[in-house]
Amino acid sequence: MIDTQELTIATALDRLADGAFSARELAESYLVTAKEKNTNVNAYLEYYDDALHMADAVAERIKAGETLPLAGIPLAIKDNILILGKRASAGSKILESYTATYDATVIRRLREAGAVFLGRANMDEFAMGSSTETSAYGITKNPLDTTRVPGGSSGGSAAAVAMGGALAALGSDTGGSIRQPAAFVGLVGLKPTYGAVSRSGLMALASSLDQIGPITKTVADAEIFFRVISGSDPKDGTTAQESDTLSRKPMNGAKRLGVPEHLLEERGIDDDVRDNFRAMASLLQKDGFTLVPIELPHIAYSLPTYYIIMPAEASSNLARYDGIRYGLSIGGETLLDTYVNTRTDGFGAEVRRRVLFGTSVLSTGYYDAYYKKATDVRALIRDDFAIAFENVDAIITPTTPTPAFKIGEKARDPLAMYYSDVLTVPANLSGIPALSVPSGTVMRDGSALPVGFQIMAPHFREDILFTVGRAVERLARTGEHYV
Questions:
Q1: Measured CA distances, 230 to 111, 123, 195, 460 (Å)
Q2: Distance CA 134, CA 38 (A)
Q3: To bridge 70 with a disulfide, which of 61, 113, 386, 455 should be the other Cys (CB 3.0-4.6 Å)?
Q4: Is residue 262 part of a domain?
């Protein structure tokens, strides 16, 4: 029997190459585990009926002599990423019966690399949420403690991997939606540089913030995954030219780590989470890294800036769901009635809240006062990071202010829920890459809950993230000094 919890992408590739098991046997093992545990966790909305056929096709390609970087690796795919002929609902009733008419670019690249798609992972509706409690298809639970959330909006993707129901997963990150759930379930989550990975085929939440990335068990796996999905794409004009991307960057070490102490003193960051971060930072210092105090003067405005820009872009992007072109349609006596009926019934409370707020800040009389001012502050935040990176190789913080919270604990308090993103949104506003790596646990109600250590680097320097991330991973495992 294959141990689905023990394998990583790297070890699975080795064992597939050695013939220890076949791609079909690997996919079957993950599907069995997924179906066994999903009843309680609700990580998957659907299992793909052609998953085993995909595995068989990969085996044939290997026999034919193809070298495939993700040969036979079973993945969970977030419900807002299009796969030709498969349902994609973005966790919303308004797209309950929508079937994708083309592959997202990342899906095409994963197919070419030999990956196997196991199924569609649950998510917060249209990626609006930090707990996977806003899905129209039920709450996803944290496999490590099912009374708690797995984070969001990529909570289904993270839970699928954490419960042993996928070897890795694809998610999307608008304000922390890969890194936060990865931290909550003890996994590695990568938000690449904006423009490093194509967004073609990703259902847009906020187009200037969204980025697709992997959730994996190790930093090495995240790097393997990233190298497959990254690169320029003519279907997405925001992707960078190949000369700017990681493939052309030297894989140098990174030794100077910026620590924004003023951010660590923010109210709302749990003491034990702060202590965990400082303990890991101290271990990194003993391991040969230099800790450099830095100032990010405008970072305190990141959360309010984000919660103006993101709803504004969301209100524009979600205008297409009108009951006329595709998706749910609830008719009325007039065209306006059809719009109102469809969107009222089709969207959940959190989506309606953000669309209304976003439409308001874009309206006459409020655009200059709110949206334009937010874009100006965003530029200042970007500049803060650019100045900091003149003196340091990377910037480190905790990933989240708390460990995974209880289901329902913040559902009725949107502001408390939004604060979950306080440490992750700056990377999205700045477009820089960020990585969350498990750095130990803290105790809550007798349970040891994982927390994440966040590393941020300059644009297109994912190599720095992987260098520092591997050190964090090793030190978290041993707690010892290595020369």
A1: 14, 23, 9, 11
A2: 18
A3: 113
A4: no
CATH at residue 94: 3.90.1300.10
Q: Give me the active site residues, please.
A: 78, 153, 177
Tens-digit pLDDT profile for residues 307-327: 999 999 999 999 999 989 888
Is residue 234 in a domain?
yes
How many Cα atoms occupy the beta-carbon half-sphere of 278 within 13 Å? 13
Look at the chain and report how many structural domains it folds into.
1
Token pair for residue 241? 């030219």
Segments forming the whole domain that contains residue 119: 9-248
Q: Around Cβ 370, how many Cβ atoms within 10 Å?
A: 19
Residue 343 lies in a domain: no
Helix residue ranges, H only, 287-348: 302-317, 335-346
pTM above 0.85, yes or no: yes
pLDDT tens digits for 117-134?
Answer: 999 999 999 999 999 999
In three-state secondary structure terms, 60 is helix
- Residue 436, strand partner residues: 189, 454
For the stretch 217-250, pLDDT in tens is 999 999 999 999 999 999 999 998 755 554 445 5
Measured between alpha carbons, how far apart are the two ends of the chain, in Å?
A: 38
